[in-house]
Write a structure and sequence with these properties.
Helix content: 55-70%
Strand content: 5-15%
Distance between the termini: 30 Å
Order of helices and strands: HEHHEEHHHH
Largest sheet: 3 strands, antiparallel
Number of helices: 7
Number of strands: 3
Structural class: mainly alpha
Shape: globular
């Protein structure tokens, strides 16, 4: 379980992915991250530009000149940047639990502020408050996004321990079924790249 804060290195990883798509400038990266987060997360110039300058210093990115926009600082990924991105993809792939801890931790705190008598939080000026109606709305948004991206939402009755034990068993079974040296089968019956 995470002690505090969001998973480390998230912004720098996203910046690398966005630079791999095409050369970009800082404000464009900020806007793209805000869009990816559904408008719920808006990093500052103070978080993105130091990453770009650090990548430039380390040889992962380089400034490029554009005749149509000579005053903008565009950055492009270098060959070393592509290699670094491959490493970061493996690293971020192992952070799903960290993301879940952040999401669930914030939600548990939201509910605690609404229900735990030890907290006496005043409503905010923007009409948001800690109560069951807003909690239901948050849950509804998560379900809508799940259905948009993954298909119909089905409830899971397992406790956290049961869920992790079942998933661990399923993952171990999947590994046992794969034969060393053979590519995993794709859903259409063809071979999937490893």
């Amino acid at each position: 379980m995470r002690k505090s804060g969001p998973p480390r290195g998230l912004i720098s990883y996203i910046v690398l992915e966005l630079l791999e798509e095409k050369p970009r400038y800082g404000y464009e990266i900020l806007k793209e991250i805000t869009d990816i987060s559904g408008g719920h997360w808006e990093p500052s110039y103070g978080s993105v530009y130091p990453i770009l300058y650090k990548f430039e210093e380390e040889g992962y990115a380089e400034r490029i000149e554009r005749e149509d926009e000579p005053d903008r600082k565009y950055f492009a990924l270098t060959d070393e940047g592509h290699e670094h991105l491959a490493e970061k993809r493996r690293e971020v792939g192992g952070k799903a639990r960290d993301f879940a801890d952040v999401i669930l931790g914030f939600y548990h705190m939201y509910v605690a502020f609404a229900t735990d008598g030890r907290f006496d939080v005043d409503p905010s000026d923007d009409d948001w408050c800690f109560d069951d109606e807003y909690s239901a709305w948050i849950a509804e948004q998560v379900i809508r996004h799940h259905e948009r991206d993954f298909g119909e939402f089905e409830r899971i009755s397992d406790s956290p321990d049961e869920f992790h034990a079942r998933r661990g068993d399923a993952d171990a079974g999947d590994d046992a079924e794969e034969r060393p040296g053979e590519p995993e089968a794709a859903p259409d019956g063809g071979a999937r790249d490893a």
